[in-house]
TrEMBL record:
This is ABC transporter ATP-binding protein. SUPFAM superfamilies: P-loop containing nucleoside triphosphate hydrolases. PROSITE patterns: ABC_TRANSPORTER_2 (PS50893). One of its GO terms (biological process) is response to antibiotic. Keywords: Antibiotic resistance, ATP-binding, Nucleotide-binding, Transport.
Length: 320
């Protein structure tokens, strides 16, 4: 189908007894920037390998642009940056990029690739003299050496410090702005949050969440309520301060009370029902000062979703 960049249909892949990918159904559409998240061993790299035709599924099918991964790659429709595989070392960065542009079926100009990857300044350096972060940028240059429709990146910012990483995100975003579909696996949730318009969460080879980062945060449901209780307000309160009242509020997942300043307690609650929580705080006769209700970050959402599944899996295992 023309509107499909990639499609996994009922895909399974095992390594011996390890089920690395388990019934994956997924369609990538043109122009999407998609982050693939998941804890270690969730099956991210295996899924990317299957997408690129580097491994064959045991079950189901993987198609790229309606055909086989191999055909799409031969047509130069895909650029990839994988974790494995070293770079040629006894050459300069420019020579390596020149070679990549030359052999690519849709090779771009060397100058354009060096600029887009942000490596013009290191073009005359030898590849074996680069730092880890610079090496990653050169790998990225090789992934964008052709005018590909899909760019696949496996943990591209590993080894980059924060400032380098942000520069790299801009390069990635520019690829998406040029209309290419970008799929990248990452451990950095802030990266998914700020770049991807779609986030996929894999867990034990299964796709457990698929949506915008806002949707994934909403699905985890949790919100934070924070406020202060001042002793001076308690004298007029209907009830004395009692943590058990807070713990009994609807949907409470965690409660943290600290008293760093005399006479002031800071309360932080994580809850699945912030509205009922706030109402309950007032109903209990408390006078919360500086009340704040905030959503959780993608990181917390991710931990909540995968943590719940781990708990379910453990419960199922022990019931057996
Ligand atoms: N070549 C292999 N032989 C045997 N088992 C493998 C092989 N490659 C991966 N696995 C196993 O398959 C599962 C999925 O691994 P995969 O590398 O796809 O996950 P990942 O999400 O990319 O992990 P990470 O974030 O650690 O890179 C893991 O349990 C892993 O140990």
């Amino acid at each position: 189908m023309a509107s499909e960049v990639a499609a996994f249909r009922g895909v399974g892949k095992s390594y011996g007894r390890v089920r690395a990918v388990d019934g994956l159904d997924l369609v990538l559409r043109p122009g999407e920037t998609v982050a693939l998240l998941g804890p270690n061993g969730a099956g991210k790299s295996t899924s990317l390998d299957l997408l690129l035709g580097l491994r064959e599924p045991d079950q189901g099918s993987v198609t790229l642009f309606g055909g086989t991964p191999r055909a799409a790659i031969a047509d130069g429709r895909v650029g990839a940056m994988l974790q494995s595989g070293g770079l040629m070392t006894d050459v300069k960065v420019r020579e390596l990029v020149e070679l990549a542009c030359k052999v690519h079926p849709r090779g771009r100009s060397v100058t354009g690739v060096l600029t887009d990857a942000g490596i013009t300044e290191i073009a005359e350096r030898r590849v074996d003299k680069l730092s880890g972060g610079q090496e990653q940028r050169v790998r990225f240059a090789l992934a964008i050496a052709g005018d590909s429709d899909l760019i696949v990146l496996d943990e591209p910012t590993t080894g980059m410090d924060v400032s380098v990483r942000q520069g790299f995100w801009a390069s990635m975003r520019a690829q998406a702005d040029a209309g290419r579909t970008v799929l990248f696996a990452t451990h950095y949730l802030e990266e998914a949050d700020s770049i991807a318009d779609r986030v996929l969460v894999l867990h034990r080879g299964r796709l457990i969440a698929d949506g915008s980062s806002a949707e994934i945060k909403a699905r985890a449901g949790a919100r934070r309520i924070a406020f202060e209780i001042h002793d001076v307000d308690l004298s007029s309160a209907a009830v004395p301060f009692d943590e058990t009242v807070l713990r009994a509020l609807p949907g409470v997942q965690s409660l943290d009370v600290t008293a760093r300043v005399p006479g002031v307690r800071t309360v932080r609650i994580r809850t699945a029902d912030a509205d009922a929580g706030v109402a309950g705080i007032y109903r209990a006769g408390l006078y919360p000062r500086g009340l704040e209700v905030t959503g959780v970050g993608l990181e917390q959402a991710f931990l909540t979703i995968t943590g719940e599944l781990d708990k379910q899996d453990l419960a199922e295992e022990s019931a057996r």
